[in-house]
Amino acid sequence: MPYINRKVQDNASKCDSCRFNLVNDFNLKKRNDESVIKAAKGTMWAACKLCTNRKDFEKIYGVEPVVYYSSLFS
Question: Quick check: pTM over 0.70?
């Protein structure tokens, strides 16, 4: 189990309030257009792969933020 300190916890919590997070986009939830949802997931995936907080999120939750939040959105 990785060592989890306060800095790791703070960085992981930043993923929850990320502007690329699909769960935070309420207008997207109202739409049923599959192509828009796929484009949003692609944008989230690209942004998460470049983010420096992703590794800290993985230490706590065991999965990448894209996988975690995409499953909540579906």
Answer: yes
- Cβ pair 45, 66 in contact under 8 A: yes
Cβ within 8 Å of residue 4, ≥6 positions away: 59, 60
Q: Are 28 and 37 in contact (CB under 8 A)?
A: yes
58 within 8 A of 11, measured Cβ to Cβ: no
| 26 exposure class (CB count in 10 Å sphere: 0-12, 13-18, 19+) | exposed
- Write out pLDDT tens, residues 24-65: 766 666 667 778 778 878 888 898 989 999 999 998 889 988
Q: Copy the structure tokens of residue 11.
A: 């960085």
The CA distance from 62 to 30, in Å, is 29
